[in-house]
Batch of 2 targets.
Target 1
Amino acid sequence: MTATENAADAYAAERDTTEGRVYTVTGGDWDELVASVDPVSEERLIVNLGPQHPSTHGVLRLVCELEGETVRSVRPIVGYLHTGIEKNLEYRNWTQGTTFVTRADYLAPIFNETAYCLAVEKLLGIEAPKRANTIRVIMMELNRISSHLVALATTGMELGALSMMIYGFRDREYILDIFEAVCGLRMNMAYVRPGGVAQDLPANGVKMIRDFVDYMPKGLDDYEGLLTGNAIWQERTQGVGYLDVSGCLALGVTGPVLRSAGLAWDLRKTMPYCGYEEYDFEVPTHNGADAWARYVIRLAEIRESLKIISQGLDKLEPGPVMVEDKKIAWPAQLALGGDGMGNSLNHIRHIMSQSMEALIHHFKLVTEGFRVPAGQVYTSIEAPRGELGIHAVSDGGTRPFRIHMREPSFINLQSIPALAEGGLLADVIAGGASLDPVMGGCDR
Amino acid sequence: MSADATGTGGSAPDGVQPVGVQRPKGLFGVADTGDTSGFGGLVRAEPTPAEIPSSPEPLGGYFDEIVGALRELLGDDVTRAVVVDRGELTIHIAPDRTAEVCRAMRDDESLRFEFCASVSGVDYPDRRNRLHVVYHLTSMTYRRNVRLETAVGLDNPTVQSVTAVYPTADWQEREAYDMFGVVFEGHPHLTRILMPDDWEGHPQRKDYPLGGIAVEYKGAHIPPPDERRAYK
């Protein structure tokens, strides 16, 4: 570029400026230079979605390369919610581990806890009592419903069906109320513990759950009435985010997405745990392999979960909810006091004024924890988003040597390029929402 | 760690020891301070032999079938050690043969491990080959599980990538690289995934402290958690 002082400019008239000299950028090879770096001339735009964007399910970042409105490439970038849960676990005892893993996938805390506890129990070579297993199943299925409701709600919100969001979160609230009554907390409850569960169901627990089981089918009918026949909903989801069985298997995608492609792979059926083999339920599948099929599958799975819950309630028999071995079971019994849930006063009286040995035992078990024989195990359960695996390694100490969470959100997100490339930008959102990723789980 | 509270002698016993056994080192397994805050740097596992003792064969169940088929396909030396523990089969293999083994595991009719469930790393700081990479494979056809394990040292932490066989290993290998510094040869784009791109060190290694990051907040210098309070 040249800027000759007194040359007449073909494009701009001379004018006075308040300061300095006016330069015009024309002439020479400037046009060529601009053309070579201008992305518009290649008709490709790089659009960055997220990490803070309501349509990306938390702090997920998608870098999309667009040609017009067609997505040519998507690169998911994760890690914004990495909290070092796996590292932290190595500095806490085995029981405290539940309070960490429960915070990974925050929409499915009971699943994180159960998978972790099954791994610890396998390392210890113990099994939770029957009642504890039944309670785990009931709580997991309630949690699966609440997670699927959020999936429906957020997908609805992202595709413009705002009523679905309101209803989905409203009904999830019902389940969170049950969780609060049972565990004292709505999320991140650390309710499932190695050896059983923290406490038995409260007196009104079974009734609350039964009321919910009676209430929910009506809600599901409403959602189907809202969405299934809705032309906009159909247009936005059918044929969108296609991923067939071979794609799912290659990319390791499990859960509703795999079943929406037609493969009835559900760990509750294929590799049962917690006594799932005793329950009568179906594994819904679909041949659509698209966002629509995943919507249908999730609704059907909620109905199956309701079946499991009512069977679980029938199965509940009186009994212990924690292993009898006092070297593993948490010593303190919880009770509701004037200031909320806490150690029962009977227990406090026992250790403080009756038995020195009980106090020592309590102290040792709570601060140091129990030792777990050395070795490694892998346990996997069917979480709402797919296979949730825990690879637990013990060195024989009171703290985990290594815990790895095989998080379905993390694995499933790999398939976003396969789902979205070649489609429209709006379908990136629909396809991503149909995977139902939870970044807390993905980034851990 | 220098102090040995139990006074059983500082060096490792010469004989073969079960994998990863921790010898007690005083109250709560810590050596110098009584810090149970979690930030104090716990004394970890004792040195363990590099050689992993195999379980006696026959292994029972479908395990013999898997090991037999694998040896038939790739030669007897493909399995470095075969361990059956708690009803789970672990096949230890060489780090430069992971891709080959995985391909055989996936494609052979009698094996059919179509699905790679999980790839994770483990750091055994006192072993010669301290960085372990663990693959959990699932056969949907036969409903079986198997664990493949390989180990590399810090001097050459290279493992063959299995992404060509199992594309799902892509992000998981990136995570293992990010957290442990295992380099996967043949991975299409081995970059950090959970930690920021410019992060230094590999956080899940045992010699990497928990916390340890100083931050500045509104002009004040906040020391890392392990330096905030002295327990000495």
Target 2
Amino acid sequence: MNFEAVIGLEIHVEMKTKSKMFSAAPNSFSREPNTEIALLDMAYPGTMPIVNKQAVINAIRVANALHMTIDHELHFDRKNYFYSDLPKGFQITQQFRPIGRDGYLEVLGRDGKKKRIEIERIHMEEDTCKQLHFMDYTLLDYNRAGVPLVEIVSRPDIRNGTEAMHYVEAIRNIVLYSGTSDGKMEEGSLRCDVNISLRPYGSDAFGTKVEIKNINSLKNIEQALDYEIERQSASLLNGTPIQQETRRFDEASGKTVLMRVKTSAVDYKYFPEPNIVPIPLSDEFVNQAIATCPELYDAKKERYLAKGLNEADASIILSDIAMSRYFEKALPLVKNAKTLANFLIVEVNGYLNKNAIGIAEFPLDEASMAEISNLQDDGFTHKQCADIFNYCLANKVSPKEASSALQIEKQVVDEGAVLQAVNAVLDANPQSVADFKAGKDRAKGFLVGQVMKASHGKLNPAAVSKVMDEELKKR
Amino acid sequence: MKEITLDVLHDAATRLLFDMSDEEYQTLFEEFKILTKQMETIGRIQGLDELEPMTFPFDCGNSYLREDVAEEPLPREEALANAGSVQDNEIKLPKVVG
């Protein structure tokens, strides 16, 4: 029997605000434990939550990017549970009136076709404190307690690991480019929990749900789900029923591992948060939040494609938001966006990888990079421009100084000069001409090399090659 | 509804890390007696179950949102002052895994 996987995702995104969701404690991801706390975050009696405006703006922007209906009145609720990561004994969330409802995203499926994934809700809430578990004790760091979160809950429309991966990737791009979050899965600022069940094809009923928690990379989402589909299929075919349980993904083995069996659903006794009265949001406030949203990933990509980049180039540049910022600063200064993109993708990325640094530490500014890119479009070869690029970095000089120090001159493309040089070499090398005519293609390479050598590299190789083809035909 | 006795108040105070005098316990106990009586009175109103629960006493709203400005946090020493045990500037507990 063949099974269909039914997958839903819950994604928690830590928002990149200056202060916390309900307190004015800093939210700056300090590594020093327990240094970013307000009394409210530790649940001191008498402290009252006050909603962070920027967090609301961020949530509106993400909701809009996910094509959701935005609630123009904020309501918060209490989710009650007793656990050491939650100082108040409850989490303030939006159970009954999420800020956004009924959205969707279009993502690429395994067959390469676009598929619409419906999104049930997006709501704001606060993060819990960070727990570090050791053999026989636990340490608590309250810096994370109260950090603003948005939770995005999909409908169970996803059918395999690839769709899930692309869905999370699209959400990561939205939160990253809207300025809502740095979206780093490996550091926990974007966390993904997955619910998956199997059912026979054609059935409308849902099977028993298994939860996989805290998957920390896009690739792992795909692997974890594809493994889980295989595991559950094998189990069902064996006649072993699936039990309701929570699992985690073990990266080393590429398998999901049982954490705990769920015996009963937890009753969180939700009720409206009495310390925050309903907050009406004016149309003007909501519209302004949307209108001032930074340009999103998809819009940028479209613009890059219109500038002449291909799909792969645009994706590589956009895969690093700092790289895309660099690209955009240089863009108005260049003659050809594609040339600039090629430099960033090959030379700049090569330099960054070699030196294990990010583009923020890259020593060449955007104007210099644009100057080098323009040299190529003015007739210098890519090799010459790459030499200038490397000389600039090695000697901390401007492209002009580098090109003068390297005595690089623009190559000659004048057909008359090239024709004369080609014929001189052909006349001097009759054997190579004969070899070429006899089918030895390598002889042409030798002849072109001789022309370049005789001209001390001043002739344009592409022009030499073209004229060489024409002249060889005549002989 | 659970009966509020002095033992219940002592137990709650212990759980909430409160320290009160006997006189304060007695005051609280007397106040709870009044509250309980009021709740019983309200409970006698006919048709209560048919009403929607209310969070706020009247239809109210507040359009205030806090500007996203970070303020000086609590000094770490103060934040950790009430912790029973501290290690590496973190609060130390017996292992809890949920």
